[in-house]
């Protein structure tokens, strides 16, 4: 049996995944990174994007994350996500509405704080749309 790394994905609501996997590819703040067993320890930010979970040499699950943090050790990958959604469960109309709402919020922002918050929501909505579009290509 191939060596595995324990993968845990936690959102503010609940523990979404806790299982041994072959590899996990995370959208890190400095770029995507793959974590395998015996990976060098690190802590990094996670940008909005898709986590690919590998089992049996192929992607077994794809999860959209809106950002967060990842801790990698030689035996474990833990992602603390601000928000996490299975890519297979994304609905086009929901994603489109979220994008429209975020665009409107940017236009209506009346302070620097509101603008920053709205621009962050827009960044996440665009990444969510990209995840949906990539799902339909595969």
Give the structure's gist in a few sentences:
The protein is built from two helices and ten strands. With 138 residues, the chain is α+β, with helices and mostly antiparallel strands.
Q: List SSEs in N-to-C order.
A: EEEEEEEEEEHH
Number of helices, counting only DSSP H or I runs of 4 residues or more: 2
Low-confidence segments: none
* Gross morphology: elongated
- What percentage of residues falls in helices of 4 or more residues? 25-40%
Radius of gyration: 16 Å
Could you describe the largest sheet, including whether it forms a barrel? 5 strands, mixed
Widest beta sheet: strand line-up: 2-1-9-8-5
Strand fraction: 35-45%
CATH homologous superfamily heading of the largest domain? F0F1 ATP synthase delta/epsilon subunit, N-terminal
Instruction: Please state the second-level CATH architecture of the largest domain.
Output: Sandwich
CATH fold-level label of the largest domain: ATP Synthase, domain 1
CATH class designation of the largest domain? Mainly Beta
Number of strands: 10
Helix/strand-derived category reads alpha+beta
Give the count of structural domains. Answer: 2
Mean pLDDT: 93
Instruction: State the end-to-end distance.
Output: 29 Å
